[in-house]
Specification:
heterodimer; A: about 575 residues; alpha+beta; 6-stranded antiparallel barrel; 26 strands; about 20% strand; B: about 450 residues; alpha/beta
Chain lengths: ~575, ~450
């Protein structure tokens, strides 16, 4: 559409929302506001009034200053250089911003998302005369040691026969491929963040996203291409859980969005990630990661955009056929940014002051997750894990409730568990995963046929314990029947050994499926022996005093744990035999 | 300078002015009364036909005849090293009878966000001498750790004890205290001032006082002035600055008052929907910057209305700050000082500041054991109330007693008792003697038990 370049005039300024008149604009056009050319986006058109949200502080701007329309919507730059980067909410690299404006974020500075000077070694995978389709991979760049960046024909192109393509060293702006349709493409693509990138078809996910966290992989797994929510009051461990997932999940690419969260926490991620080793490749974790940091005191409109920036980058890597995991910490801050802007627009709010479109925005966002067949063929996935920070820890508030209607995995964080230093503080009775049925085959075939029955047994014991605890609260544990005293003990073992996991211990921080299975079996073996002994007349006191189980915690903290496990099995066997003799 | 006489509406702290030249957003304003008195304000909303000015002082005496002058710049504050030792009003004017501040610099009071990439990792352990903070909720330089309290609890004494005793062991770097009072009583302010004078802390302190009878709207500026001063001292002069903000609840009330006057759509309990962002703009002004010497550490104090931690003020604060120290009315009633309840308390940056080479290698594990031991003991108290103590197993009885010992020995200490971190941790080990060693082994490595458990130490 034609947009005249005539600058408009600012009419009113009230916080991050400003009104301009006398110019042409369309919804979500990016505009430059005031003499300092602050970046903004059109969010409402009301007669002559064009209402704009500004991504930078509007302090000191006055009516009468000019507004110019770029005619483009808010877009990100996609291409080699995304990985290892750390961006603000509108894809400005924070490192570049320091060079341009010092330690504090000032305004009126633009910085491109990708490095336009750097040369990358481009290797073609098609040759002259080949036919290329939109979305097809035509070359590669080894972006980091871990990730081969695939260069694709933009999804909106026509495609055609290749007339020119060469290997060599190029910047992202140089043309690397020419087609007989007269189209020429550099490595860079620009994509509007509010528009999902196209794909051929969406599949039903069937492979778990493995995280090395026992309670997640073992009891409440998320599928690759799935969506999960982690709601919890402050201090219950949302951020730690998100960071554990960013570190250990077996995705190819991780996009981590710090949306309206703490500055010092982002620093922690920034200092820690480069030093951590990716268990899959042995390289630094940073080499597969893109970080987006829009802390709570950075402009609220940029916070609103940060989630879209992140998911667009995630979709781009998905289109190359990678499994991408996106962590958004926290989607509540995103919702609050919407609320703040909505109230400045003096719109009629929905529940608790949130805009009436909160629910549709949340579902649009989570719907961008999925296991798909991208235009380039094969499969790729985006898994979305959104933290939710419910006000007052109350799960009935609108953001939590609207999120739960969409996601299929719910990891409920519980402050009372974190107070007891039970970490991860995920409540095993409230949490659920609706992917269990879809993933059962994977566990059956790829891990062990024993897995699914053992998992079901674990859940059953935990549920039984919850019922028994109610009785214990009333009458004390001695009053329980003998076999149920053992159930209480077994449940305690499940909680303390299996569910509790120490993210700060170098060994326990990551636990693979084989080790999880071994722990499943160890506890089940103890339980079987204990119930059998009890049935044979041994008193619960004697059974609970079995020494072998004191060694069990060592399994968690020992890298080469098999010898310890063998010893536990043989000791258990001996002790129970002695008891029954 | 042009003076407008076009005031068309006054509502609460807001003054509406018509037909002005273009005025910039957040520009400073002087309101001139017929008798020549000047009041200060800033622009909240500006358009060609109407400008909304928020007056920082009482609007008594303002009317249609009030003159309005727009000063052409946003609120800037004069700062200088000579502010140390001075007492200023909540609006930044000297009230100690001393001379005006001679500015070395004039700074924007809203401050800019620190680029997350420029932040250094906070890792210097601050020893406060209070076991429940040092041992289990460690404070580090650059952290923001609020105190959640309730009416009638000794949060001021705790804040003062921290200000008195806080030090980084083995460091002799210069440090300063910036104290901002918002809506506290004259009496409370006096006790702070008396303590600062008694301990000589006033020489290296900058005090901002907005008392209970000062205009509420001025409170919205006070913390910003305090933090601008703190940032100047820290990032330009290299001081390690401890900022105490009390009471943030009064600040939020003032924010709500302005929101209501503007007829904004309110969020929870009538507080404005942007309160999270507004509080973040205050609390996030703490930290360490890579390559710079100083640091800003914040201890905001807030009283939870009705001792309700889910009230919007503590709730939003807790989501921004790096943990919280919670003060408990129950412990206070038991006569325990400082009545810090460690169970809901938390320090998120603790792990960065403790451990081998920082405090001691057993710190993390001792802290975890203390926590879980106390939590279990407290749970059992509920059970004992129903079934009686005798129905407990021997193991459970030990934990029940541990909870009492924890409160009486670990939590309880004197207002001037300055415990070193080694004393705090050793005290923990001393208490662990009462627990079975197999329970300790669930949380603590055997090596550490062999090193620190009194049984193995001669």
């Amino acid at each position: 559409m034609e947009v005249s370049n005539k600058p408009g005039i600012l009419k009113r300024i009230a916080g991050p929302v400003v009104t301009a008149v006398d110019f042409d604009a369309h919804m979500y056009d990016v505009v430059r506001v005031g003499n300092e050319q602050l970046m903004g986006e059109v969010i409402k058109i009301d007669g002559e009034d064009i209402i704009i949200q500004v991504y930078e502080s509007t302090s000191g701007i006055r009516p009468g200053e000019p507004v110019t329309n770029t005619g483009l919507s808010l877009a990100v730059e996609l291409g080699p250089g995304l990985l290892t980067s750390i961006y603000d909410g509108i894809q400005r690299p924070l490192e570049v911003l320091i060079q341009k404006m010092g330690n504090f974020i000032s305004r009126g500075v633009s910085a491109p998302g990708l490095d336009h000077e750097k040369k990358w070694d481009f290797v073609p995978v098609v040759k002259v005369g080949d036919e290329v389709k939109p979305g097809q991979v035509f070359g590669t760049v080894q972006e980091t040691r871990s990730i081969l960046h695939k260069i694709m024909v933009p999804p909106t192109a026509k495609g055609g026969k290749v007339t020119k393509i060469e290997a060599g060293s190029f910047t992202v702006d140089e043309i690397v491929i020419e087609l007989d349709s007269d189209e020429k493409f550099p490595m860079i693509q620009r994509w509007p963040v509010r528009v999902p990138r196209p794909y051929v078809e969406k599949h039903s996910p069937s492979i778990p996203l493995l995280t090395g966290q026992r309670i997640l992989d073992g009891l409440f797994p998320i599928a690759k291409g799935g969506a999960a929510a982690i709601p919890g009051p402050f201090g219950s461990g949302k951020t730690v859980t998100q960071q554990q997932l960013a570190k250990w999940s077996d995705a190819d690419i991780v996009v981590y969005i710090g949306c309206g969260e703490r500055g010092n926490e982002m620093t922690e991620v920034l200092t820690e990630f480069p030093e951590l080793v990716d268990p899959k490749t042995g390289n630094s974790l940073m080499e597969r990661t893109t970080l987006i940091a829009n802390t709570s005191n950075m402009p609220v409109a940029a916070r609103e955009a940060s989630v879209y920036t992140g998911i667009t980058i995630a979709e781009y890597f998905r289109d190359m056929g990678y499994d991408v995991a996106l962590m958004a910490d926290s989607t509540s801050r995103w919702a609050e940014a919407m609320r703040e802007i909505c109230s400045r627009l003096e719109e009629m709010p929905g529940e608790e002051g949130y805009p009436a479109y909160l629910s549709s925005r949340l579902s649009e966002f989570y719907e961008r997750a999925g296991l798909v067949e991208p235009l380039s063929g094969g499969t790729g996935s985006v898994s979305v894990i959104g933290a939710v920070s419910p006000a007052g820890g109350d799960f009935s508030e609108p953001v939590t409730q609207n999120t739960l209607r969409i996601v299929k995995v719910f990891w409920a964080l519980d402050a009372s568990l974190s107070r007891k230093r039970h970490f991860p503080a995920i409540n095993w009775l409230q949490s659920y995963s609706l992917y269990m049925a879809q993933l059962a085959d994977y566990y059956d075939e790829k891990v062990s046929p024993e897995w699914n029955p053992l998992r079901a047994w674990f859940m059953e014991v935990l549920q039984k314990e919850a019922e028994l605890q109610e009785i214990v609260q009333l009458v004390g544990s001695d009053a329980l029947p003998e076999n149920e005293q053992i159930t209480i003990e077994v449940a305690r073992m499940i909680r303390e050994l299996f569910l509790q996991q120490n993210g700060f211990d170098p060994v326990d921080t990551y636990c693979d499926l084989d080790k999880q299975l071994d722990m499943f079996k160890m506890i089940k073996t103890y339980a079987d022996l204990a119930y059998a002994a009890q049935a044979a007349g041994v008193s619960p006191a004697q059974i609970l005093a079995v020494q072998a189980k004191n060694e069990m915690p060592q399994i968690k903290f020992t890298k080469d744990y098999k010898p310890v496990l063998d010893k536990i099995y043989s000791d258990m066997d001996k002790e129970f035999k002695a008891l029954r003799a | 300078m042009k003076e407008y006489k076009t005031v068309c509406k006054i509502a609460g702290p807001l003054v509406f002015v018509e037909k002005t030249e273009p005025v910039s957003y957040e520009e400073q304003v002087s309101l001139v009364l017929p008798d020549g008195t000047m009041k200060r304000g800033k622009v909240l909303d500006t358009s060609e036909d109407l400008v909304v000015v928020q007056c920082f002082e009482s609007t008594t005496g303002l009317g249609r005849d009030t003159g309005v002058r727009f000063l052409g710049e946003t609120f800037k504050m004069p700062v200088s090293k000579s502010m140390l030792g001075r007492i200023l009003s909540g609006g930044g004017k000297p009230i100690d009878g001393g001379p005006e501040i001679v500015p070395e610099k004039r700074l924007e009071i809203n401050g800019a966000a620190i680029n997350p990439y420029a932040r250094g990792s906070p890792s210097d352990f601050i020893q406060t001498g209070i076991s429940t903070i040092d041992g289990t909720n460690t404070l580090v330089r650059g952290q923001k750790l609020p105190i959640f309290s309730s009416a009638g609890l000794p949060h001021n004494d705790i804040a003062l004890q921290i200000a008195r005793q806080a030090k980084v062991p083995g460091s002799t770097e210069e440090f300063a205290v910036v104290f901002a009072a918002m809506g506290i009583t004259r009496e409370e302010a006096n006790s702070y001032m008396a303590d600062f004078e008694r301990t000589g802390a006033l020489e290296r302190a900058v005090v901002f006082l907005n008392l209970a009878d000062d205009p509420a709207v001025e409170r919205t500026v006070t913390p910003r002035l305090a933090l601008t001063t703190a940032e100047y001292l820290a990032y330009e002069l290299g001081y390690h600055v401890l900022v105490i903000l009390t009471d943030m609840t009064n600040y939020c009330e003032a924010l709500r008052q302005i929101g209501a006057a503007r007829e904004e759509v309110p969020g929870r309990r009538g507080y404005p929907g942007y309160m999270y962002t507004d509080l973040a703009e205050i609390y996030e002004r703490a930290g360490v910057i890579k390559g710079l010497k100083g640091s800003v550490t914040q201890i905001p104090i807030l009283t939870m209305p009705g001792d309700d931690i889910t009230h919007p003020i503590p709730d939003l604060t807790g989501y921004i700050t790096e943990g919280q120290i919670v003060i408990s009315p129950e412990l206070h009633r038991k006569g325990i000082y400082p009545p810090i309840n460690v169970l809901p308390s938390l320090s998120r940056l603790m792990n960065l500041g403790i451990g081998k080479g920082l405090t001691r290698d057993d710190h993390k594990k001792v802290s975890d054991m203390l926590y879980s031991g106390y939590a279990e003991g407290v749970d059992l108290r509920g059970l004992v109330a129903i079934v009686g103590k005798d129905a407990l197993s021997e193991r459970d009885q030990k934990f029940l007693e541990f909870a009492d010992t924890f409160e009486n020995r670990f939590v309880r200490q004197g207002a001037d008792e300055d415990r070193s971190i080694a004393q705090t941790l050793d005290l923990g080990w001393d208490m662990f003697q009462a627990l079975p060693e197999s329970e300790l082994e669930k949380r603590i490595d055997r090596d550490l038990i062999k090193t620190y458990h009194p049984k193995y130490r001669k």
